[in-house]
Amino acid sequence: MSADYGARQKNIIFSGIFLIISIAMGGYALTTMNMGTLDRMGPAFFPVVLSAILAALALIVLFLPAPADAEPFAIAPPRAIVIIIACPMIFGFAIEPFGLLIAVFLSIFVSCLASQVTTLRQALLLSAAFSLFCVLVFHYLLSMTIPLWGSVFTG
Fold it and tell me: What residues does the DUF1468 domain cover (predicted)?
């Protein structure tokens, strides 16, 4: 009974913190940027919708009872936290010189290093599959002007 109580307490604390952060970020985006419409999305559209979804998920976790065998939330190891925070930066720094394909591959591959159970084969397969998926969606289906190959390859 006490393990369930501890898990429930941590669920409430983390969900509450996450809910407050989500609402604050969405509110900030809504008040400082143009929301736009569904047909012509403004810069605030994605952050506001994302924060609403995250707030809804936090509310679900907040009000769902913890299972009897639930373990309390644990903080990720520092190595994993640093790697996950670094991945968007890797993508941002790699997109111009290397292009979409390599930037996605690098950021996904490095993110796989955050897990101690992911094998090299799994990391390579996941990176390749996700890179191809992003190229298909963003380059071919959405016709975004993100170059597949960056300035290192095209000059």
Answer: 13-147
What is the distance between the alpha carbons of residues 48 and 8, in angstroms, rounded to a whole number?
28
**In the block, residue with structure tokens 């975004």:** 144
Question: In sequence order, what are the residues at sequence separation of 6 or more whose Cβ sits closer than 8 angstroms to the Cβ of residue 72?
Answer: 3, 6, 7, 9, 10
The gap between the terminal CA atoms of the chain, to the nearest Å, is: 64
**Residue 3, H or E segment:** helix 2-32
Strand partners, 41: 36
C-alpha span between 59 and 79 (Å, rounded): 29
Give the H or E element holding residue 135. Answer: none
Please report, for the chain, the start and end positions of each structural domain, with discontinuous segments joined by +. 2-63, 78-154
Which helix (DSSP H) or strand (DSSP E) does residue 133 occupy?
A: helix 120-134
- Is the distance from CB of 73 to CB of 128 less than 8 angstroms? no
pLDDT per position as a tens digit, 80-92: 999 999 999 999 9
